[in-house]
Amino acid sequence: MSELIEALRATATRWRAGNLEHHGGVVLVWQGSVYGWKNSLRDASHERPGAYAIDDAGHVFVAEGGDDYNGAKCWVVTDPDNDQQQTEADRIAGQFETLRDQAVAAEYRNDLSDDEVAELRTQMAVLSSQYFNLTGEALK
């Protein structure tokens, strides 16, 4: 994550150097390219989820939630020190997917009892809760 943040900051700095008429505000970046500038961070519904905004102090925000048609739900401040948290979230998501695959396969093959499938689903619920605590999103 910190490499991405630094790349976004560098992109915004280069753009600002070539566009001195735009003071302050935020530089908007989509898929590594600048697509705009605004004098302040505004309603996220005007941006696609996954778009970034970098202010002149180097703070990086990402548009999250929503969809491409209706725009994002909100801006979220990125934390370059969040690598460990993301690694843990990825590990939990992997375990969740493994359990989900086992539960689905067991239901088709009928090789686990109902209690064993229920135990898998309970473990999935625990992992989803842990993932939510790290990311604010639930696993399904």
What would you say this structure looks like, in words?
This protein is of the alpha+beta class and 140 residues long. Helix content is 47%, strand content 17%. The chain is built from three helices and five strands, in the order αβββββαα. It has helices at 2-18, 83-109, 114-135, and strands spanning 26-30, 33-38, 52-55, 60-64, 74-77. The protein has a five-stranded antiparallel sheet. The longest helix is centred in the C-terminal third of the chain and has 27 residues, at 83-109. 19% of the residues are buried. The mean pLDDT is 89.
Chain-wise SSE layout:
Blueprint: H1 2-18, E1 26-30, E2 33-38, E3 52-55, E4 60-64, E5 74-77, H2 83-109, H3 114-135
Antiparallel strand pairs: 1-2, 1-3, 3-4, 4-5
